[in-house]
């Protein structure tokens, strides 16, 4: 495999993540204050729009667990790229809340294609071509997407109305779609030999079930900050007008963190790396509760960006290596749990914010869930050790 070909494949994968996750999902975060100011949306509606988006993400994850045909996966992955562009542009052409719900749901479907089908297809390609089976570079696209939406948000918020801003995000996604499509390899040639017992072994795996619970907790920790970070910052007098900057900092932190976590994991072990990532994510939430100064919120954004991306990257890469024949399936099972968290948490936190007038109670609840996630992560590690020991004895 020529180095230039590898670079093109990785670049296409990263750009696709920027389109289907960075823009299709994360453009909504800096758009929240814009839409609230222009249209008077309540916190509950803001939270429900995020919830519907993750309902689409959840539905996509569930569907992907049922798909084993590699050709179909490739077609759906390509469709996800197109849907990400269209669903983003159309957000600016209506003020009907129900149509927004539909568009955010469809956008969530495209995000699941980008995250899960994209990660699984790339993992198969890496294994097939004797490359390191790590997804740090792939998930750097999430951080790049955050950076892109943050910078765009600042550039376009004054010259353009909220509806025009949505269209601009969509047009940028359209431009990025071109190299993502042209540099995409023939993933259908990356099918690995099937032994016939991988799916059954996955279904019986207690490790996967407990890991799903741990990942659910991580989903809560991720989505509450992802949805409300800019709004939280803008609600603070000393940070008013700087919400985009906080979001940019989170993205800049997330972008290099993926491969840094890969390096750390290789040196100290994947479980130690995951414990640390979960703990840091909890710390970032605690900082938002205890200190509302600009320096504290900025540092919280740095820690958040670096930690959530590490959890996602390491978790999905780990199950992809454990079940290499069809990596998208266990990745989707984990993301199904992640998606449930992302569907429920924004609605709950948005409701609490409406009732209490601030995000404090919602953040405390999120912190408690993350602490539970560390416990579940440790239980998953113990289950994996037992399953590995049992396999070695039967083998």
TrEMBL record:
Stretches assigned to the Major facilitator superfamily (MFS) profile domain: 8-385
Stored Pfam families: MFS_4
Transmembrane annotation, as ranges: 7-26, 46-64, 76-93, 99-123, 135-153, 165-184, 205-232, 244-261, 273-290, 302-323, 335-353, 359-380
One GO MF term attached to the UniProt entry: transmembrane transporter activity
InterPro entries: MFS_4, MFS_dom, MFS_trans_sf
CC per GO annotation: plasma membrane
Keyword terms of this UniProt record: Membrane, Transmembrane, Transmembrane helix
Protein name: MFS transporter
Source species: Marinobacter salinus
């Amino acid at each position: 495999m020529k180095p230039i070909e590898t670079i093109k494949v990785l670049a296409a994968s990263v750009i696709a993540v920027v389109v289907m996750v960075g823009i299709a999902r994360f453009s909504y975060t800096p758009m929240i204050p814009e839409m609230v100011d222009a249209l008077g949306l309540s916190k509950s509606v803001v939270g429900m729009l995020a919830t519907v988006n993750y309902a689409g993400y959840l539905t996509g994850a569930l569907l992907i667990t049922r798909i084993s045909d590699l050709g179909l996966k490739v077609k759906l992955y390509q469709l996800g790229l197109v849907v990400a562009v269209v669903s983003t542009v159309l957000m600016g052409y209506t003020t009907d809340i129900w149509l927004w719900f539909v568009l955010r749901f469809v956008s969530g479907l495209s995000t699941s294609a980008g995250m899960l089908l994209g990660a699984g297809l790339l993992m198969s390609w890496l294994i097939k071509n004797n490359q390191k089976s790590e997804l740090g570079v792939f998930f750097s696209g999430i951080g790049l997407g955050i950076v892109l939406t943050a910078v765009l948000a600042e550039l376009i918020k004054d010259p353009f109305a909220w509806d025009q801003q949505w269209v601009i995000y969509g047009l940028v996604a359209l431009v990025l779609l071109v190299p993502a499509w042209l540099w995409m390899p023939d993933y259908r040639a990356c099918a690995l030999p099937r032994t016939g017992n991988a799916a059954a072994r996955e279904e019986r795996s207690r490790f996967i079930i407990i890991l799903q619970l741990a990942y659910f907790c991580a989903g809560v920790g991720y989505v509450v900050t992802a949805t409300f970070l800019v709004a939280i910052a803008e609600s603070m007098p000393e940070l008013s007008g700087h919400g985009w900057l906080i979001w940019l900092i989170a993205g800049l932190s997330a972008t290099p963190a993926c491969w840094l976590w890969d390096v750390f994991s290789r040196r100290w072990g994947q479980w130690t790396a995951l414990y640390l990532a979960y703990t840091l994510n909890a710390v970032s939430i605690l900082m938002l509760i205890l200190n509302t100064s600009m320096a504290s919120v900025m540092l919280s954004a740095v820690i958040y960006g670096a930690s959530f991306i590490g959890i996602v990257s390491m978790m999905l890469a780990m199950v992809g290596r454990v079940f290499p024949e069809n990596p998208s399936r266990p990745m989707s099972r984990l993301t199904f749990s992640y998606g449930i968290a992302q569907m429920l948490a924004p609605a709950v936190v948005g409701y609490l914010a409406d009732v209490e007038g601030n995000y404090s109670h919602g953040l405390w609840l999120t912190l408690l869930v993350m602490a539970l996630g560390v416990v579940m992560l440790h239980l998953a590690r113990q289950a994996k050790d037992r399953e590995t020991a049992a396999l070695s004895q039967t083998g």
